[in-house]
Amino acid sequence: MDHRAPEERARQVRRASLRLAGQFAAFTCAWFFLSHIVAPSLLPSVAAFSAWDSVAWGLYIPAAGSLLWLVAGRQLRGSRRAEERLRALLESGSELALFLSSDGVVRYCGPASAALLGRPWQQIEGHNILDFLHAQDAETLQSTLRLLSMPEAPDSWRLESRFRYADGSWRTLDGIGRLALAPDGSTQITILYRDISELKQRELALQDNAQRQRDVIEHLPVGVAGITLRPPATVLSASAPLARFLGYSSAEELAGAVLSGLFYRADDCVAFCERLRAEGHVHDMEVQTRTHDGAPVWTLVAGHAVVHGTASEGQRFDCTFQDVSACRQAELSLREATQALRAAIYGSPAAAITLDALGRVKMWNQAAERLFGWAEQEVAGQPLTAVLVERDLGARALLANLPGDEALAAVEIVCQTRGGQPVRVEISSVPLRDSLGRVGGAAVFAEWRRPFGLPAEPAGDAAGAAEATGQ
What we know:
- The protein has 471 residues and is of the alpha+beta class.
- It folds into four domains: 5-91; 93-200, Beta-Lactamase, CATH 3.30.450; 220-323, PAS domain (Beta-Lactamase), CATH 3.30.450.20; 341-469, 2-Layer Sandwich (Beta-Lactamase).
- Helices cover 43% and strands 25% of the residues.
- The strands form three sheets. A five-stranded antiparallel beta sheet has the order 2-1-5-4-3, with helices on both faces. A five-stranded antiparallel beta sheet has the order 7-6-10-9-8, with helices on both faces.
- It is rod-shaped and about 160 Å long.
């Protein structure tokens, strides 16, 4: 079975030409019969045609017939050229043309079926199109065919169908259908399909990516909101974690809220919006936000324009809200503990020194200043061995190992004062550890003992140190 649609149209043109010629011949014979036979018999006064009239009729009829065949041939050649162009379009194009009957049987299938469906047109013509469709799409097409049988059927429509490829996979085709008349006068459905499988795969990939992003956002410990700065600045959308953080029942309830209502202090909202307008982004701005019941919560907010470039009033900004109340409380507790430790160290009657992880001096209290003669600003950042030890190699080795993993208790060493005087001290130390248990420094305590060359009472710098330590 070959493609018969173009030849069928050519035969229609030829039949129409023959009908026109027959009608012209019948009209000519009828007119000649009436004028030469009927008219003279009814009206004797009408003279018969002269000989030259017969000659004129003899010339007129062949000329009219030739003109008629010329017009018919021209129409036929134009129809053939149109059919050739249509055939070339159907055979060379990447789109699949299908002519269906009202019940879905394929009357004509274009050669593009080999590329789009992996099947030659011979395997498709004569079969019902529903045999090649996905079950869901077959039901949709059946509903469309039933609708087309009604008087209010649309002239054209669009449909998307999944066709089974020759290897069993599925290809998504997008088609435009129209109603037309078949050569036999019945209703014919013409559908032109194009392959959108790759486009559909990219669309599904984008949808999956968007869904994964939504899932990630829903499980983040950070709330996300889209806002606009068009007065009044408004929340366009919000994530579920942000709604829970601020005490709203759902993200939909939070969407549409005025942005200033989320800030505990109006000045913070104004500063945040002004920075977004001026710079297009804000990083880690610590403010107090307001929950749904009006309670303040310390929050770290950030925002950036969705489309990079100059920020405008109607532009969308994506903002994050992170609850830092626990961090803020921990920071406050740490600050209080540090201040208490600093007060205890600076107020201690014994010489107290704190070291960093490299053994350099961080804190040096007044008792240490009185004992060794060095001011805190003079020894800050210096290794403890360079400050206190000059000749005693054992003491240098001992202090060089600070901070260590083990604590020291009442170890006597000989140190030197700023004036170069030797002084015997009793050293104790404890390691300072971070939250992971790693040693990050040490606290060293020094107590004065009797200096060399003196019987029982200290003298000079050592006497002042002894007085300072109460011994």
